[in-house]
Amino acid sequence: MDLVKTVIRRDSWDADKRLAEMQLVREPLLECRDVAISEAANATAFHPANAAGTFSYHHGTWALRDRFVGEDWVECRADGIETIRNDKLKIKIAYCNVDVACDAEHPKPRSKKGAGAERACGGLFGDLPQYAPRPTGDYALYYLMVDGDGAVELTRPVLQGGTFTGAVERIFLSFGKDDDEAVIADDKTGPVDNFDPQVVRK
After folding, report:
1. Cβ(158)–Cβ(167) under 8 Å?
2. Which helix (H) or strand (E) holds 5?
3. How far is CA 162 from each of CA 7, 54, 102, 123, 153, rounded to the nearest angstrom?
4. Dist CA 51 CA 47 (whole Å)
5. Phi-psi label, residue 17: left if phi above 0, alpha if psi -120 to 50, beta otherwise
6. Mean local confidence (pLDDT), 175-179
7. Residue 106: what pLDDT?
8. CA 85, CA 64: separation in Å to the nearest integer?
9. Rounded Cα gap, residues 77 and 190, in angstroms
10. Mean pLDDT for the stretch of residues 148-175
11. Which tens digit of pLDDT belongs to each residue from 116-156?
């Protein structure tokens, strides 16, 4: 298998340079995080157990479209994946709740991903952290990954068996509470099951 080394952009200057190449800006991406976490906090004990994750996913996706859809980005639902799409750069971005972001280990989604996402991301055989298959396909699918402490990364993952098994590129945007004391973390005493709904064609 033709593998490439994972590119990890930890430094702010490197991350911001890459974001500019992708016609993105850090602050609106962090606003998407803030919206998602704020909405997750609206879940109460009377809501279904997965309410916090559902709220954050729906509103994180809304915020991504609200901040970026316009001249460069359009709304996209191809392959059952809720994204924004840049046709000039051939990039798609989706929102995702993850276990941990900006960590040495690559993030894991809080819910299983569908076949459409797996096709868009590509699969990986074996366990080779820091390496991923050479990208294929017309569009690069990135996820805005947000964890419960507010850490955020924009990552092009490799997906197999419904979970992320590696990454082609990781762009660290915020370490959460360590970067921003105003970040409100998930309520660990409330509902803990989180998911990103999958759109399935009938």
Report:
1. yes
2. strand 3-5
3. 22, 18, 21, 10, 19
4. 6
5. alpha
6. 79
7. 81
8. 11
9. 31
10. 91
11. 555 555 544 444 446 555 555 689 999 999 999 999 999 99
Helix, strand or coil, per DSSP, at residue 200: coil
What H or E segment, with its residue span, contains residue 17? Answer: helix 12-21
pTM for this prediction: 0.79
CA 188 – CA 24 distance, rounded (Å) = 32
The amino acid that residue 144 corresponds to is: L
Which residues face 131 on adjacent strands? Answer: 5
Strand partners, 83: 76, 94
Question: Is there a contact between 103 and 152 (Cβ–Cβ < 8 Å)?
Answer: no
Contact, 47 vs 192, CB < 8 A? no
Q: Six-digit token pair at 1?
A: 């298998």
Cβ atoms within 10 Å of 77's Cβ, excluding its own: 10
DSSP calls for 59-82 = HHHHHHHHHHBTTTBEEE-GGG--
